[in-house]
Amino acid sequence: MTAKYGMVINLERCIGCYACVVACKQCWGTRPGVNYNMMNYVEWGEYPDAHQRYVSTMCNHCDNPPCVSACPSQATYKTDEGPVIVDFELCEGCGACVDACPYDHRFLITEDMTTSYEEVVMPCEEKSSKRVNVTEKCTFCYERLAEGLQPMCTVHCPGQCRIFGDVNDPESDISKYIADKKPTQIAGTSMYYVVPENMDRSLVPPDLADAVSTQMSAKNEKKSTSGDAAKKAPEGVPAAAVAGVVGVAAVAAVGGGVAYKRSKRKSSSEQSE
Ligand code: SF4
Prior knowledge:
Elements: E1 5-10, H1 19-28, E2 38-44, E3 51-57, H2 66-70, E4 76-78, E5 84-86, H3 96-100, E6 107-109, E7 134-136, H4 142-146, H5 152-155, E8 162-166, H6 173-181, E9 184-185, E10 191-194, H7 208-232, H8 239-253, E11 261-262, H9 268-271
Parallel strand pairs: 1-10
Antiparallel strand pairs: 1-8, 2-3, 2-11, 4-5, 6-7, 9-10
Helix pairs in contact: 7-8
The structure holds iron/sulfur cluster (SF4).
């Protein structure tokens, strides 16, 4: 049977250290603001029964990816083993896949995006800094898999929260882990989460069908509200300036209505306050 790659993230073990985020950025030399791996901080309950956890998210490598159907140049495609990747030679940078992804996990690289230090290109950015007007995303480190290596985020997680491998092989570590821990699969995708007992399912990414339907509702709402905004915009104020606010609210709703807080590190001056 062909291999089908999947990943389990055990939220009971994640301490939100960002090693996965940093390892991924280093490996792929992504630009500031482009994170294939994202760290979300979630909290629920009220004192004295309040809780918090970190929920790391990334491309879910959907079974029937909306991004692939949306691509007009077949630049993005699903490999036989599951990872969804982009052929930069074919990508025209139209951004259709970015709009189509219901999980908001694709990044359009435009000419005005700088590298980390503007004047200096870091060694890890040398290859990626030449890529403009294309879409980037997590590939499950497809090139590394071809060499028999694991994804960078998995290798560098100090809590060993991530288990990656072939879910079609009953003898693989991931299959045994799934049998033992019974994680929640994000239905229609290659991702699984071990969700702590008292944590609500809604705090991890929604199933693909639900994510698509939330995205559709948000788009329809945005369309009708921007229509109203166009009608109501005061003279001299472009309708887009009014509708832009609605756009931000809609993006926050995509992802199953989960009020994720993408956790932000404090700068050293903020920390010393
Ligand atoms: Fe495509 Fe988004 Fe699904 Fe990843 S999560 S396969 S980018 S639709």
